[in-house]
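Working notes for the structural subgroup meeting. M.R. asked for a predicted model of this chain before we commit to crystallization trials. I am recording the input and output together here so anyone reviewing the notebook later can reproduce the run.

Input as submitted:
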Amino acid sequence: MKFSCNTLTTHMERDELMSLTDADPFEVTSQVGCLWITMDNDSRDIILEPGQRFEFAAGDRALIVALKPSWFLIGKAVPQAVAKQQPPRSTSLLGALRRWLPRPAGTAFAA
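Returned structure, recorded in C-alpha cell form:
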C-alpha cells in the first residue's frame, strides 16, 4: 500500500497481511492489538504493542502481520526533535506468539 495522506488509521484482523512502502519516511503506531513487522534486507522481527511506534526510512518496504485484531496509525514520520520515539519492545517473534496465541488446554510452552 502506498499512501499520500499525513495519517491513516487502519484495522487488520488476526493473521491479515499488509505491505507498506513510501517515498518519504513513515511510521506505524500501534493503538490496539499486536503487530509483527519485517522489512526487506533487515533480519529484525519488530513487535508493536499498544502505544509503541516504529519509524521507517524513505523507500523501506515493510510487511505487517496482525498477531491479533489490531488498530494502528500509518503516517509521515515526525522529525526526532519534535516527537519522542518510543523504541519497540525488544521481543522475539516467538516470545510475542507465546503471549498472544491461544494455548491448547492442558499444554504449556517450554521455556
